[in-house]
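Complex record, two chains
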Amino acid sequence: MSVSRERTSVTEVSLHRPYLAANVTAWDYETDVAIVGFGATGACAAIEAAQAGARVMLFERGSGSGGASALSGGEIYIGGSGGTDAQRAAGFEDSTEDFAAYLKAAGGACADEAKCDLYAHEAVNHFAWLKAQGVPYRGNYLPGKHIEPTDDSTLIWSGSEAAAPFCDIAKPAPRGHVIAHMGWGGGRPLVDILESRARSLGVKVVSDARAVALVKDGERVVGVVVRVDNQDRFVKAERGVVLCTGGFVFNEDMRRRYCPDTLRLSSPIGDQDDGSGIELGVGAGGDAIHMEQYFSTCPWTMPEPQAYGVFVNQAGQRFINEDCYHGRVSRTALDQPGNRVYLLLDIAHFDQPLEMAGMTIAGTGDTWEEVEQELGMAAGTLSATMAFYNSHAREGRDPLFGKRTPILTPLDEAPFVALELNFATSYFSFFTLGGLRTSTDGEVLGRDGKPVAGLYAAGRCTSGLPASGHGYSSGLSLADCTFFGRQAGRRAAAG
Amino acid sequence: MSVSRERTSVTEVSLHRPYLAANVTAWDYETDVAIVGFGATGACAAIEAAQAGARVMLFERGSGSGGASALSGGEIYIGGSGGTDAQRAAGFEDSTEDFAAYLKAAGGACADEAKCDLYAHEAVNHFAWLKAQGVPYRGNYLPGKHIEPTDDSTLIWSGSEAAAPFCDIAKPAPRGHVIAHMGWGGGRPLVDILESRARSLGVKVVSDARAVALVKDGERVVGVVVRVDNQDRFVKAERGVVLCTGGFVFNEDMRRRYCPDTLRLSSPIGDQDDGSGIELGVGAGGDAIHMEQYFSTCPWTMPEPQAYGVFVNQAGQRFINEDCYHGRVSRTALDQPGNRVYLLLDIAHFDQPLEMAGMTIAGTGDTWEEVEQELGMAAGTLSATMAFYNSHAREGRDPLFGKRTPILTPLDEAPFVALELNFATSYFSFFTLGGLRTSTDGEVLGRDGKPVAGLYAAGRCTSGLPASGHGYSSGLSLADCTFFGRQAGRRAAAG
C-alpha cells in the first residue's frame, strides 16, 4: 500500500490523471475560464468567454498563437439557411436541410448528428460572427477545382458535394469560404485576427506554458497545471477549463495504439499536435471516440490537368469516382491492397507532377497495353479498365462509380503515363480526427454520457464535424474548430 | 461544489469509475484473486491462480459458466516449436518463427508483437497444458476446408495460412486444434472441462453476480463490487482482480462510439458481451485500444461447392483471393462500396445456399453476360471479370489476387448464378476485437504504458492475438483467451 500512496504524492503531475485540488498549496493564477491551446479553436473560445463577461486566461505551449490552424488555408466550410452572401451572389441557394444532409453523409457511421444539425442551422450566423471579429472576405466565387485559391477569392468547391454519392443525397453547393488573403496560407492571418480580437477583450495570454495536468476537486475540474520555465504553475479556473490542443498526429505512441494505419505514412501535418488534450480529458473521466479516423491527402490534382486522371489499384481496377474531393480519393487509395496506386493520364492531361508530391512516373506507353506491361500487370487488366472507361466517358457516363463531366473525359491521346502514388514515399499528408466526445455545447462527456463538470473541449482534440477520413471536405475542420470553440467558450463562461 | 460531492457519495457504484476503498464499510468476501467472468478465459485464469496457491473466487453474471467460449467450436489455434503431435503426425512441421510471422501478419498494424512472439514460443506447451486439464483430442488431421469439423477430428486448416499473401510470409501449416467432440459446438464441453478442473482446485464460484465497480485504494485495485440479488457485495481481492468479461458486441452505445461500422450488421454473436470489463478497466485507469476492430463472417463456404465461387462487388470487380479464410473474405466484402457483394457460381459448384445464411439468388443466366444484365450491371463488367478469371484459372493462375488451386477453378459450366450477400439482411455474424491494453502477463496497462496495480485482464475484453478483423483465423480468439487467461491468473496470484 505504501508504494501506491507514494505514487499519488503531491509532487507528481501527469497528463494521465488529474491532480487533486487538496494537494494544491497555492494557486499561481486565478481566472474564470482557462483555455489550453491558442489555435483558432482557443481564440474563438476565448473571445466568446470574454464577451460573456468571464475573466479568461489562455495558455499556449508554443511561443505564440498559431497551432495547426495557422498552417491551414484559412478556409471554413459554411452554408445552409439559404446561403451566405457569397453563395447567393454566385447563384447558389443552400438549404439548411441539404447542408445538414451533406455533413451527415460526410461523417458516415461516425457522424455526430446533433453537431451536424446545429452547425447547419447556425453556420450563416457564424459567418457573420467571423466578419464581426474582423475576418475579411472578398465575397466572390472562384469556379473550378482548387485545393486553395491562388488569389484572394472567397468561395470555392472544397468537398465532394457535386460528386456521387453526395450529389444524390443533398443538393450541391460550394461551401468553402476563404479569408481574403492573396494565395495559399490564409490560416495565419485568420488566427492573427482572432488573437487580436481576443486580446482586445482582455484575454490574458501566457505563452511557453504547457498544460501537464488538470486539477480536480471531487468530480469537478477546477483548474489546470501548466509548466512554465520548467516550473509547475497552478491555475484556478472558477468556471471551467477548455481544451483546444489539437489532435495526436505527432504522438507516435498514441497513433500506434489508436490509429496504426497512419504509421505507414510519412507526412504528418500540424503544430506539435501530441494528443495531450485527449490524454488530459480522458484522464479526467472523458471519453475518446473514433480514434482510428484520419484525414489524408496527396496533392494529385495539381498541376490541374491531373485532376482529369483515372486511378487504378495494383490489380488494375478503378476504385472511386475521381471527381470527388482529392482527400476522399487519397483516403480511399490507402484502402487498396498493397502499398501503391496509379494515376493514369494521357498526354492531353499530363504535366510534370509537383516535386513535393513524390509521385513518380512508373510506366509509359503508346497504348494502355504498353503501360500495363511496363507496370508488370497481367494483360487485360489496366488496359481493359481504360478501354471500358474511355468508351463510356465518350458517352459522358461512368457506370462503375458515377464520375461526372467535365472531369469525366476520355484519356485516349497517346502517349500515356502512369504516375505512382506510393503510400510510404509519396507525400500523403495526414492528421487525426478522433478525440474527446463532447456535447454540442463543448462539454466533455464521460463514457456514461454525462458531462465531466468544469471541463470543455473543441477542435481536433475532439471528434466533431470532420468525423470520418473518407468524408472530409476542406474547411470542415476549421468550421468545427471555430464554431464549437465558440460554443465551448460560451458554455464554460456560464460555469 | 456540493453537487459534485454528492456524486461521489458512498452509495454510488458505477462501471465508469472506481469505488473508493475508504468507503467500504464491510467486505462481504475476502479472497486473494477475484476473477470476473466464467468463460474459457476466466476458467484458465482461475486454474492457474489456484495452482499458484492463491485463494480464488470467480464471479459470473450468468447462472453458470459459459460465455462466448461455450458458443464457439472449441477450436484453439496452436503451432510452432516444430509442431504439435497432431501436426507432426500429419506431416506438418511448424517452426516457431513461421508461427510468429503468421500471427504478426494476421494482426497487421494492430498486432502486439510481444504477444505473438510469446504465444508462438509457448503454444505447444499450452496444448500439453490443455490436455493435462483433461481436454481430449483425437489427434488426427482432417484435410479440406471446414468451418468446424463435422466429426470429432482434431486438426484443420482454420485460417489463411496457405493463401496469399500469408503463404509468402510464413510457411503454412494447419493450426486449428479442436476438442474431441462429435460435430460442431465443442466450446461447451471445453468450458465444462475447464470449470470442473477449476472447481477441483478449490475455486469458489458465485453465479448471478454482476461486477458493477472496481474498488481502488490509492492507485491500486483492491477489490470488486458485485451485485447479487440486487444487493451490492464487496469483494476484497488481496492480490488482484482479473477481468475476463468478453467484448462489447451487445453494447450498442459502445459500438456507436467505437465501432460504428458494425451498426449495419444484424447478427452479433456472444453471450451478453456488453463491454463491462472494458468500462471497468478504463475507469480504473486502463487504456482501450483498437476499438474499431471486429471479426465478421458470413457462412458462404457452405455447402462446400460454394467455396469455389468468385466474389465481385457492385462494380463487378473481384476484391480478394477467395481461397483465404472465410472471415477474411467476408470482412473484406464489408469494405466494398454499397451494401452488398455477389458470390458467383456455375452449375458445377452450385448447391442450395444455407437458409441461415440469408444469401439470396440475385441473378442467373446461361452466360455470365446474362447474369451481369440481371444484376443491372453495365455490359463488360462482371462478364469481363469472369472471362479474365476463367481464362487464367484454366492455366492455374490468378494474376490479380494470387488465388491457388484447387479452390482456383474455372466457373464455366452453364447455367450460372449470382448469390447476393447483403450486409444488412444476410447472416454476417460479428464480434468485437478491441479492448484493454495488457502486457504479456495480463497486466492492464494505463495510457502511460504502466500497469494499473492489482488489475489484470484477458480474452476479448482485451486487444490480443486476434487484433485485426481482416486477419482473423478460427481458433485465434480461444488461443488468446486460454493462454493469456492463464498468464493473467498466474500473474495475479503473484500479487
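Note: Residues 113-132 of chain B form the longest helix (20 residues).
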